[in-house]
């Protein structure tokens, strides 16, 4: 399943990723945001279980914001796995 998730409250505007039949994450990319950090997140989560990564990244903040690109990715994963 391919997912395009529109973020809210962060510098990146979209998160794109695929989930396979076992709900493992593949091909993560972000539009905008901190390029190096988001590329690193994409590499670190490749092939990992969506539920575990969502739980790990949930609640991460960025500066004074109550969310972050990682937290938004967690929300996207939760929505995608709930379907």
H-E order: EEEHHH
Percent range for β-strand residues: 15-25%
Q: What is the first-to-last residue Cα distance?
A: 10 Å
Shape: globular
Count of distinct strands: 3
**Spatial order of the strands in the main sheet?**
1-2-3
Q: Which spans of ≥5 residues are poorly predicted at pLDDT below 50?
A: none
Structural class comes to alpha+beta
**Helical stretch tally:** 3
Main beta-sheet strand count, sense and barrel state:
3 strands, antiparallel
Q: What integer value in Å does the Rg equal? A: 11 Å
Please, what is the average pLDDT?
A: 97
Instruction: Give the helix level as a range of percent.
Output: 25-40%
Assembly type of the shown chains?
Answer: single chain
Give a verbal description of the structure.
There is one protein chain. This protein has 83 residues and is an alpha+beta fold. It has helices spanning 35-45, 50-57, 69-82; strands at residues 2-6, 14-19, 25-31. The protein has a 3-stranded antiparallel beta sheet. It is globular. The N and C termini lie close together (10 Å).
Brief write-up:
With 83 residues, this protein is an alpha+beta fold. The protein is built from three helices and three strands; from the N terminus they run E-E-E-H-H-H.
Write the layout of secondary structure elements.
Blueprint: E1 2-6, E2 14-19, E3 25-31, H1 35-45, H2 50-57, H3 69-82
Antiparallel strand pairs: 1-2, 2-3
Helix pairs in contact: 2-3
Looking at this protein, list some descriptive labels:
single chain; 83 residues; alpha+beta; three-stranded antiparallel sheet; 3 helices
């Amino acid at each position: 399943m391919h997912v395009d998730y529109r973020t809210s409250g962060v510098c990146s505007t979209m998160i794109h990723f695929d989930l396979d039949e076992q709900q493992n994450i593949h091909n993560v990319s972000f539009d905008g945001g901190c390029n190096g950090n988001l590329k690193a997140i994409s590499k670190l989560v490749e092939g990992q279980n969506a539920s575990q990564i969502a739980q790990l990244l949930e609640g991460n903040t960025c500066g004074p914001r109550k969310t972050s690109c990682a937290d938004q990715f967690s929300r996207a994963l939760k929505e995608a796995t709930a379907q």
